[in-house]
Amino acid sequence: MGLQGKDSTGLLECRKIIGNKLVYTRITNNFSPVVNPSSPDPLKTCQLPDMRANKLWQAPGIAYPPTPIGDFKPAGTFKIVVVGFDFPDAPGEVPPSTYWKDDLTTISEWMKWYSNDKVKYTYVTLDKWLRAPRLATAYDNENEATKSAGGNTLSAGGVTDDQKTSELLKLVENEVDISNTSAIFFYHPPSVVGKLTGQWASRSANYQSPKYGKVNSAIFAIGGDTWASMRTRWGFQIHEMLHSHGVFGHSPKIPWRIGILSTGDSWSSALLSWDSLAQGWTDPEDIYCVEKSKVTSVDLKLVPLEREQKGNRVAMVKLNDRQLLMIESHRKDKWSQGLAPGFTGIMVTLVDTTKNTTWDNPEGFANPSSVGVALKIPGVNHGTYQSIGTAIPNATNIYQGIGIVDGIGIAGDKEGWDLNYFMYAGESITYEGIKITLVKGGDNDTVRIEKVS
Question: Residue 108: which H helix or E strand, with range?
Fold first, then answer.
């Protein structure tokens, strides 16, 4: 799969179709804007409201209008301070900008595409290491204790969140203007591996600055496990920033690790279409929206979520005031560097805004729920995803299912996720009288949506 060749007409790529057959599919790699029939209904028809009777969480939200956390907003221009902290037992050896220069460019590129330029970041950077007052091991939050009301002591080192924030921001404000800052990114050097393990996310610094007054910036810090596993740093930062902007994500639960809001370092870094719609970032040309009563038969070319191409990124069929079918195309492209060459597939998700989405933590895994549930394609046996990555260097086990692909740690590469949720060319699924067929592949997937009962 993924092998490319040429004939007298042009380029071909080996892909799977119905019956798990491998065939050569015509491609041109010409990604001009996709033209489809006009959407029968406006975007707002598919922008279903939050219909939950009991909300596990008020923010972030699961539907439109978005519910940002704290002082964040769903759109606008936001100031981010980026600083490097090293430690007496984990010094930095090169300027910290060595690590964040490309990350910040990637974050801006990602946000420009997936927010349709509705979110912009301005970065204020300090290109020297600030020395934390304690050893790296004192700040380790790998095994952070359960926090009861009024108690936030970390299990390793005995440093509270408030102490950590106060100690570090006192150093930052001596060097950088932290007023009117939405977020602060802390970079630590690779030498923290084995000393400061976990990532750190704080939704509000809640810091009283002698110089700038109250500072409620979010704080996101890279941990040693990010370095050890070779995962992207920018993926973690985007993931956490999206939550602050008001996007819940973490849906669907199966297959896991699909999109940047499942985990920030998985095989697809796309923003799923429901999250974009709920956030108010979807433009009319991005979506084909139709009420079930208006469905006849239509063929649509879809833009893969992982590709930067103009056209319909999603088709949605509104079933009722709380449910819709979401039809998306996935494949290896700019924002899915961890996928196997030749991987393509249509995914159909049932969105139900009466459902809560749980976090991907022990409590959530014990009783999982999500606003979106991917529908398994009936009558197929696609098997499981085959890893294309190599092992993490010097690792003694497979950490988070990570495989190294082109020098990057991809979470889920070695987890063998179920491919029966992805439709190959010639296959179809029917739900509540709406039949969805992947008619053909190529540069773009062409799907047929029709009413059968």
Answer: helix 97-114
CATH number of 76-242: 3.40.390
Burial class (CB in 10 A: 0-12, 13-18, 19+), 317: buried
| Distance in angstroms (rounded) separating the CA atoms of residues 230 and 403 | 9
**Predicted model pTM:** 0.95
Give the whole-angstrom CA distance, residue 267 versus residue 222: 20
Q: How far apart are CA 272 and CA 305, in angstroms?
A: 7
Residues 6 or more apart in contact with residue 107 via CB below 8 angstroms = 121, 234, 237, 238, 241
By the 8 A CB rule, do 153 and 160 touch? yes
Q: Where exactly are the structural domains of the chain? A: 4-56+250-383+418-451, 76-242
Taking the C-alpha atoms of residue 227 and residue 221, their distance in angstroms, rounded to an integer, is 12
Residue partners of 38: CB distance under 8 A and separation at least 6: none
Could you tell me the two tokens for 349?
A: 């998700």
Per-residue pLDDT of the chain (453 residues; tens, 9 = 90+): 889 999 999 999 999 999 999 999 999 999 999 999 999 999 999 999 999 999 998 899 999 999 999 999 999 999 999 999 999 999 999 999 999 999 999 999 999 999 999 999 999 999 999 999 999 998 886 544 343 334 454 546 678 888 899 999 999 999 999 999 999 999 999 999 989 887 888 899 999 999 999 999 999 999 898 999 999 999 999 999 999 999 999 999 999 889 999 989 999 999 999 999 999 999 999 999 999 999 999 999 999 999 999 999 999 999 999 999 999 999 999 999 999 999 999 999 999 999 999 988 877 888 889 999 999 999 999 999 999 999 998 876 667 789 999 999 999 999 999 999 999 999 999 999 999 999 999 999 999 999 998
